[in-house]
Amino acid sequence: MLMRTDPFREFDRLAQQFTGATSPGTWSKPNPMPMDAYRAGDEYVVVFDLPGVPQDAIELDVERNVLTVRAERRPSGLSDGAEMQVAERPLGVFSRQLFLGETLDTERIAAAYENGVLTVKIPVAAQAKPRKITIAGSDSGSRQINA
């Protein structure tokens, strides 16, 4: 199971509630690293949108069941003496953390990056998968049940 937390997003939401800064139609700053997560069979798949980020500027780390994705979007196409007129694309270093449940196999995490999309696959640990258990009885046969 994947657990997501972003304390700063929650803080921003609470601050906006108390100050009344949000109203219908108000534009808010988008998350620079949006993601989707779903389960497909025996693995979880997490997909991050990272347009404009080169593959060598992405880092994935796992420590104590916390997956950290760090990416740096650098300015591109600006020559010396260029003067920025509109800057809406967020630049800099961004990171997201996912808290992974104990039932996931953090040793076999795989990642691929294509067309600005980072796909991370996290398999379910073998010990967490359903299995059959044989029950021995006093009668002549034994039977299996799902555990």
List the helices and strands and how they pair.
Blueprint: E1 2-4, H1 7-19, E2 35-40, E3 43-49, E4 58-63, E5 66-73, E6 92-100, E7 110-114, E8 117-123, E9 132-136, E10 142-146
Antiparallel strand pairs: 1-6, 2-3, 3-8, 4-5, 5-6, 7-8, 9-10
What this model shows, in words?
The chain has 147 residues and is mostly beta strands. Helix content is 9%, strand content 41%. The protein is built from one helix and ten strands, in the order βαβββββββββ. A four-stranded antiparallel beta sheet has the order 1-6-5-4, with no helix packed on it. A four-stranded antiparallel beta sheet has the order 2-3-8-7, with no helix packed on it. A two-stranded antiparallel ribbon has the order 9-10. A hairpin with a 2-residue loop joins strand 2 and strand 3 (43-49). It is elongated and about 90 Å long. The two termini are 19 Å apart. Residues 22-28 have low confidence and may be disordered.
